[in-house]
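Question (not urgent): is this output format expected?
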Amino acid sequence: MMTMDVHTVLPSPVFKPNIFESNGKLDPRIQIKPYLNGYKQPQQQQPIPQTQHISGFSLNPACACLLMFGSLVRFSWIALRTVLVTINNLYCIPSYAVWMILLLPIRAVKPTFYWRVEGRLFHWLLSMVSLWSYSAGYHIMESGDKIDEVVEIETLVLVNHQSTSDVPLLMAAFNTRPGLLPNLTWVMDRIFKFTNFGIVSTIHGDFFVVAGKAARNQTILELSKYLQSVFIPRGRKWIVLFPEGGFLHKRRAISQRFAEKNNLPYLQHVTVPRMGAVQAIVDGLGPRSTSIATEDVSRSSPPLPVTLKYILDITLAYPNGEPLDIIAIISSYIRPCNIHLHYRLFPIQRIPTDAVSFQNWLFKIYEEKEKMLASYYETGIWTINYDRETIVKENDSGFVNEPVKVEQDLIRMVMIHSFFILSTLFQWTLIKHLYSQFMISFY
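Got this back:
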């Protein structure tokens, strides 16, 4: 077979560089670009400055050093902030607890005054928690029905639950409204009772839910009793509940299977709400025709006055659907961002009275939450996809369409910090004095 020479097939080249190494392989430093009339003289690649590749980006040494310095500064701030928040816990929480113990004799004589003082200290303590998120750059953006005029009116608050940062962020939103936090009750998982804030919630009289099917009915009965023995006697106004029964990432798969089995809409950003605790609260405080409590409890307990006036639905949304966590609130390891809270206020008279209709009504509310969240995560813009229910009262509080940023009073925060620091010094001095007197008298 005849061997064909490449020079006999192709046109005469304009330039014939030595494009082969001594071993006959193509020199990788040479770029060859064919042309119709031959080969153009190849251009040898220019030497590239020395760079460092960090996270997919090419940086020269100066930029790399600057980036490393910035990371070091940020890491130092995260560590310092964690220490400061820990110290803040160490002097605020014990100070609150000691004051409540010292004032116990007043509780026996003037219980109303005692719980008024407790509510004020409780509000100040939650102001410290509000400062954690605010100083980290996690700002609350509010929209929907204005809630300022119902702060001192009996209201059931329903919130979608995503992570451990939900409660601190709600505290930050409520902190700016005088008279709200002192008369507010949290319904939370029992595991919270064993955290650093557990003693505060126990003294304040929050309600702890025992998770699991086995304890569900018993928990609902205890909640009904709690409304009679704590919520109403102490003059509480708001009760905050997470109807989904757990964090979104833990409940999503179970909720979707339940929805498929019961022919309910597919939910991705919220879960199907559980009716037990919601129904118990509405039956115990509102004009309900059905009751979740047993006949024995109903017969043994006096009838409760109708106190519930509103149901407030809060839709909580994080940027891109990626929630913060309590570690971020403490350390600020996640970059600053805005968290959206959308309010929908429903007069109790407009809510269905029978259990089945009430359940369907709540399911519809969560379907609408799902659509709003899906649109927000996709576009970054909060849109309303429902017909607004006008509040039935003499002075309608109004509606906020464009999100409004919640601003904290930093001067007030400094004053509260000073109070807890001085209280800690006073209490420590008092305890030392009492201890020394006890030791002298004992020996």
